[in-house]
Write a structure and sequence with these properties.
alpha/beta, two-stranded parallel ribbon, 35% helix
């Protein structure tokens, strides 16, 4: 008869053994699906911060050790010597199971019964009134997705100069969701001004140790002060290099920056005495982002003669490519 009753832990042979035998403890250095379930449980019960590298490898490393000892300390789970140790044994796994059950009571059943929630955040530049459907547009769920009990949660947010910065409220929504169910796949993307919001949100989540699988900046609207390189010009005035922007402290499985360069130009800074980046598109400068894989889109036909058309072309093509990438990641989650 199974000892563990929470849907997050029950049915796992390694954890059932841990709940019943002293020789089946889970210790630092362990790895595997059973460790990932312990990490998910700690994140849900105590909002534990476990870095993407450790979480992605399902490894019982330093962050998991700290989370386990904090969980045991707050509940006075002592070993035979009366000490707090980093071992997940019979008392610890049973206490974690009970904490999950207690947390589940009173939460929304539709989310609480979901093994994993996959979250897709999309900051859409230049548009207002965006809905969750905008974040899920073009995504293809695997045939086995619903059968596996996963839930796809989209956050489509308008990113416009005339609107308040939505990053903090989005961060709060993700924090709230993590308390309801473990997050499986977390993908963040943003176009134009939304690209800056996507970068800001990814930095905040990284600082909190939240694992991020995919971050995409779609022709993010940087300014001249964001670039750490200067334009290089030929005697004829043609720019020969690409603006490079700081990518911040973002950890994610995949980081990509889509961009195009039409509209970028150089202007003389009389105060600084050298050429600086400028733009024909409302001051927006587009280029590479340090730490992100560059994906330059070369506009064709009528797109190549207008900075606005080239910008729209890049964001549109990036949206299609990103949807295919995220769909592929969803498929991997279900294999």
């Amino acid at each position: 008869m199974a000892t563990l009753r929470s849907h997050q832990l029950q049915g796992d042979a390694r954890l059932e053994a841990c709940a019943n035998r002293d020789d089946a403890h889970v210790t630092p250095g362990s790895s595997g699906p059973h460790v990932r379930k312990i990490q998910d449980a700690l994140k849900r019960v105590d909002d534990a911060g476990i870095g993407s590298d450790e979480y992605g490898a399902s490894k019982y490393g330093a962050a998991t050790t700290l989370a386990v000892t904090a969980f045991k300390s707050s509940r006075r789970i002592l070993n035979h010597s009366g000490q707090i140790d980093p071992i997940v044994g019979i008392k610890t796994i049973r206490a974690l199971d009970q904490a999950l059950l207690d947390l589940g009571r009173g939460l929304e059943n539709a989310v609480d019964t979901t093994p994993y929630v996959d979250v897709i955040v999309n900051f859409v530049g230049g548009r207002t009134g965006d809905s969750p459907a905008d974040a899920l547009a073009r995504l293809r769920k695997p045939a086995s997705y619903d059968a596996r009990g996963r839930k796809l949660f989209g956050m489509g947010i308008g990113a416009n100069v005339g609107l308040p910065n939505p990053v903090q409220s989005t961060l709060y929504a993700i924090q709230r969701l993590r308390r309801l169910a473990p997050i499986g796949l977390l993908c963040i993307r943003g176009s134009s001004l939304g690209g800056l919001y996507a970068l800001e949100l990814a930095e905040m989540l990284t600082a909190q140790g939240v694992p991020i699988r995919f971050v995409s900046l779609q022709d993010a609207a940087f300014s001249s002060v964001d670039a750490f390189n200067l334009p290089e010009r030929t005697p004829e005035g043609k720019i020969t290099n690409v603006p490079m922007f700081r990518g911040g402290n973002v950890r994610a499985g995949t980081k990509i920056s889509h961009f195009q360069r039409i509209g970028n130009k150089a202007e003389r800074s009389f105060r600084q005495g050298h050429w600086i980046w400028a733009s024909d598109l409302n001051g927006e400068i587009h280029g590479e982002v340090r730490g992100f894989a560059p994906r330059e889109w070369i506009p064709t036909d009528y797109h190549k003669d207008s900075a606005k058309d080239a910008h729209r072309y890049c964001c549109g093509q990036a949206d299609i490519e990103d949807a295919n990438t995220i769909s592929g990641l969803l498929d991997q989650e279900c294999q």
